[in-house]
Amino acid sequence: MSSQLLLAVAGAGLLCAQYVASRELGSTFFVTELSVLAAAVVTLAGPSLGYAIGNRVRRAVPGSGDGAGTASNVRLSAAIGMSAWAAAAVLIHLLLPVGIRVLVGLLGASHVGLCGALVACLVALLCGYYAVLLPLRAESTSLPKLYSAELLGSVIALLLIGCAPSWRVFLIGYFSIPFVIIWLCYGWRLGLITGLLAASCWGGYGVLDVAAARRYFVGFHSHHAPQIVQTLYSPYQRIDVVDDAGARSLYLDGVPFYRAGDLDSFNVFLAGVPGSLIRDSGSARRTALVVGSGSFSSAAKLHQQGYQVTVIELDSAVADVGFRRFAQVHQLQVGQVEVIQEDVRRALSRMQTRYDLIVLDVPAPYRVQTALLHTPAFYRQVASHLTEGGVVALSLCDELAGPLGSRIAAAAGRVFAEVMVVESNTVGMAVLYAGQKLPFDEQAAASALRLHDAQGGRVLSDRSVRIEMLGAAPISEKDLLGVLLLARQVHLGH
Fold first, then answer.
1. For FRET with 263, which of 5, 70, 77, 434 sits at 20 to 30 Å CA-CA?
2. pTM
């Protein structure tokens, strides 16, 4: 019965370790579809390593016909090796929820490849230990029961992940796993010591997490003296609000979504400039839809210009943090903009409203889920909600001539009759305006560029944009390979 319990806990530990590792990797590195696949390979390689080593250890222990001294020495060596592996696995397990950020912060952005390799080795070592317990404990008659117990433990872990009301509650179960493993393998004394360590890690998690985040933002994002205003996990991503030198930043899964300076200028060209150009061309009360709340900076700029603004945000935690923590940035009051918490494709499919301006402030298409928001199919859905003379504003996440920018522009060019691109030198990437007939021309956009960017830039007309994107294939909802190739390009660029 103790072996079945041990294997059940090992199965839970294996799945929980994989979940925490993938979540921490996703919130620390610049995650793409390629890195998600790499993480999956690592978490599968660990158990394969464990099963292989377990079988080799069993075969290496001499039988009764061998010398007693030889058998004793081999058993002692195996016991020492397994004890050392167990100690390493416990340490990795307890440090995993904060350790990846610390490691990345210490090595810095210039050593991302080394960080990834070290993390891969550590996760494989941890997952391998949980997997090695099955071949070490199983006999031919008990293997089905023990393997079933391991699968049952994995199912229980899935229920914990799905039903835990918060990350901190999930961590109670997560930190309990090494305590039970060591207790069953090495007795109650070592189990008690492990339990005290696990309880200390859970109790001090908040302090440790903030310290790890501070180290990460110094080493990886080049902050000088970051103060962590808030950090939390939503069901979708990690959210960090950071103060440094009087400026506040918003990071989602380690990617900056608002920073005073360059990213504020991005919101100016994504929302403020097209909003002002449309406003100058027409009626009194216009409507705008902003997809992605972030810091509410884009929504605020449009509200200040007199627009009736609706924001669609999938993650309610991002909307709550953005509205509360960036109040000095957006200066909005409750009720001044309408916020809809829903997937944008589902929301647009049921909405009948048409908008004068639709701002797409969505992540870059380096993962399948976000790539779907850069396809002709999605742009057609957006276009159906534009008024006559309405405008869509979206980021190319790159320069127009870049491999990513040209593909996003090609997707928009397939749907909209007229496109225009503004490349601000301050922003460092292009913004595209599109519609069936844009209500402003290049000269108006160039005047806005000179007004809002002292460093200058350039404005490209519809004809120039279409010449630049010749030969570029639009991102397709069926093009997984294309997303992987884009991911490979960004990894090589880093």
1. 434
2. 0.86
